[in-house]
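Module 6 notes. Inverse folding takes a fixed backbone as the condition and produces residue identities as the prediction. Think of it as a translation problem where the source language is geometry and the target language is the twenty amino acids. Below is one complete input and output pair. Work through it position by position during the lab.
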């Protein structure tokens, strides 16, 4: 989809990005100077000779003078006869001013003795002249080079930190306090619009109104209204909070600054607050503009909640600066802040108040209609078969977020490609859902016949109790094929309800304990295969007693703390006597559900045995099989569309390479559940 919208001033379309100066040129120049000082010798043609050559020149009387430089090197100058003999073609003045030969000496005394011995009997001997000479270039380099290397290495480290997000926007040590926000303007390539956001109609309307504030401010200000300063997007992971912000960047015709909350946090003191100031300064200069801070809980965590941290740490100073910029003495006219988080419970109250974040938009998990719209968006580029029904897939994925649905579509395409199909079929989508919810099938796991029988009766116990209870979730499919860490799994289709009664939770506990009850009833002993079941039932029973006030003895009391202060408290919000009562009531509730599961399975032991034998034989059983054994559920008012056995056979019979994600317990009450055993 093309996006014809642009940001900022349209008159700036001819502006070209300027090339930045690279500090690497400084390193190149310094290296060239150093090498030049060492090896550049001004074009000298001086030849180095040995002691025998020097003695020959002395005996032939071809030397005019000898300069002994710093007691290390002897510079030899030839007279006219020596020049005519050894350099007949050189007559320039520069040639005569430089030594013709050089000789490295070891000891000055020994060198002088050799000269006297070679000139013994001469009437006009040549004596060396001691000369002190300073190589200022080499000495300066020897002092400055270590300092230059140290500072160059330091600059290189700072630049590397800048590239990795630690040294400011320009990657320069002097820009370490600059904002790292990415600016989306008229030159950006953001193609996400509101048409690409599905299943979030209420949240999209709120965000669209913010965009309209900036496009048509006079429409609201003429009545005396003020443009809101901040919008906070709150919701579970994968529900589309960042996608909403991207759609704003694609729709708004104003500069859009995007930054993550972790980009403000730095090892240097005061850098976070400096970056906040610089970010709002840039936004004011380009107002009207929008600032988007993703994962704001990285800097917006409530101050003083953690007693182990100091009261003046870097994160708190950054938060204080953010509070001041959003609603302090200074005015931020035309700057709107949009933030996203899935941890709104830990944010500071001063950040959440009106005047800073005037609006809080809750982005919830999509309902049936929303999931259908999300499937339509992600299926635009897929090559689908005629048997694919979007409405059927939306019903099979309750509780799935937008990211989960996108993953389902992608996995279905990969599975179809693995099977060399020309298009994606309905079965591919069902296998993709099984992969995400149930886990990876492990056909090579060695399971004995006795263990397989225990697993079959365990899963049959879950399926039987859930089918015969009024408020339990209807079964979709049960299998004894190992998936991930689980030895068996059962899929349910939960009802999409907003509130849950005590009877509904109690029936779910009975169905969860049906697996262990079946083991006790058939074999007379129990195993460790119900670990995830016991964990789930214990948490559910504790929530019923402690949080929801569904126990008669505890009464209408809840010890749930929505502020999160209890996480750091050293004492419980109830007395030791109340704790004993809670433990007793939770134990009684679980044991009551277990006895009820034993009673239901005992009354229907023939159907349980028939279902378990069918599982041992086929490894996969569907809802239609339970309907044939136990009959239709009398409480179901509308027909539930189950996957057919001929359309959804066991993956082991079709694809030995099918993959799935490992989950040993159900996704949640609002998801397509997988009751898995350890």
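Target side of the pair, the amino acids:
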């Amino acid at each position: 989809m093309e996006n014809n919208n642009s940001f900022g001033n349209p008159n700036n379309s001819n502006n070209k990005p300027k090339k930045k100066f690279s500090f690497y040129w400084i390193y190149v120049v310094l290296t060239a100077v150093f090498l030049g000082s060492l090896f550049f010798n001004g074009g000298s043609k001086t030849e180095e000779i040995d002691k025998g050559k020097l003695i020959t020149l002395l005996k032939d009387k071809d030397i005019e003078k000898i300069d002994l430089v710093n007691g290390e090197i002897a510079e030899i100058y030839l007279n006219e006869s020596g020049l005519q003999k050894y350099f007949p073609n050189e007559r320039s003045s520069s040639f005569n001013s430089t030594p013709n030969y050089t000789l490295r000496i070891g000891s000055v005394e020994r060198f002088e003795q050799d000269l006297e011995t070679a000139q013994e009997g001469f009437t006009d001997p040549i004596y060396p002249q001691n000369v002190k000479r300073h190589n200022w270039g080499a000495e300066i380099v020897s002092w400055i080079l270590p300092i230059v290397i140290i500072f160059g290495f330091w600059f290189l480290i700072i630049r590397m930190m800048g590239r990795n997000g630690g040294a400011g926007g320009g990657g320069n040590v002097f820009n370490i306090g600059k904002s790292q926000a990415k600016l989306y303007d008229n030159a950006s390539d953001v193609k996400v619009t509101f048409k690409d956001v599905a299943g979030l109609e209420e949240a999209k309307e709120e965000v669209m109104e913010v965009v309209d504030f900036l496009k048509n401010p006079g429409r609201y200000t003429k009545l005396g209204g003020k443009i809101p300063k901040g919008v906070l997007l709150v919701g579970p992971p994968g529900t589309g909070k960042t996608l909403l912000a991207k759609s704003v960047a694609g729709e708004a015709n104003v500069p859009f600054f995007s930054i993550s909350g972790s980009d403000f946090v730095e090892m240097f003191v005061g850098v976070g607050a400096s970056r906040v100031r610089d970010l709002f300064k840039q936004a004011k200069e380009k107002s009207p503009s929008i600032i988007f801070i993703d994962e704001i809980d990285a800097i917006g965590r409530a101050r003083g909640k953690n007693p182990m941290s100091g009261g003046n740490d870097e994160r708190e100073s950054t938060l204080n600066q953010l509070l001041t910029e959003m609603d302090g003495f200074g005015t931020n006219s035309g700057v709107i802040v949009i933030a996203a988080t899935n941890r709104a419970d830990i944010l500071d109250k001063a950040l959440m108040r009106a005047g800073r974040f005037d609006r809080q938009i809750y982005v919830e998990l999509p309902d049936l209609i929303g999931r259908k719209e999300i499937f339509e968006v992600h299926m635009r580029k897929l090559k689908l078969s005629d048997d694919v029904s979007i409405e059927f897939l939306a019903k099979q994925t309750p509780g799935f977020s937008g990211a989960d649905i996108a993953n389902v579509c992608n996995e279905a395409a990969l599975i179809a490609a693995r099977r060399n199909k020309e298009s994606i079929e309905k079965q591919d989508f069902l296998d993709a859902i099984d992969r995400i919810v149930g886990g990876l099938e492990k056909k090579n796991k060695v399971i004995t016949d006795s263990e397989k029988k225990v697993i079959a009766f365990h899963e049959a116990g879950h399926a039987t109790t859930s089918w015969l209870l009024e408020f339990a979730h209807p079964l979709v499919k049960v299998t004894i094929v190992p998936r991930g860490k689980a030895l068996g799994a059962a899929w349910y289709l939960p009802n999409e309800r907003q509130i849950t009664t005590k009877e509904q939770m109690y029936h779910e506990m009975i169905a969860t304990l049906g697996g262990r009850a079946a083991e006790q009833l058939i074999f007379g002993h129990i195993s460790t295969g119900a670990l995830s079941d016991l964990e789930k039932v214990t948490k559910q029973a504790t929530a019923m007693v402690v949080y929801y006030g569904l126990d008669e003895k505890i009464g209408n009391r809840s010890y749930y703390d929505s502020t999160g202060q209890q996480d750091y408290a050293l004492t419980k919000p109830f007395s030791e006597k109340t704790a004993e009562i809670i433990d007793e009531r939770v134990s009684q509730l679980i044991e009551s559900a277990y006895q009820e599961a034993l009673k239901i399975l005992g009354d229907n032991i023939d159907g349980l045995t028939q279902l378990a034998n069918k599982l041992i034989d086929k490894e996969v059983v569907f809802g239609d099989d339970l309907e044939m054994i136990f009959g239709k559920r009398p409480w179901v008012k509308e027909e539930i569309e189950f996957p057919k056995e001929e359309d959804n056979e066991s993956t082991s019979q079709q694809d030995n390479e099918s993959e799935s994600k490992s989950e040993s317990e159900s996704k949640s009450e609002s998801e397509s559940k997988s009751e898995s055993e350890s």
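Reference fact for the lab report: The mean pLDDT is 78.
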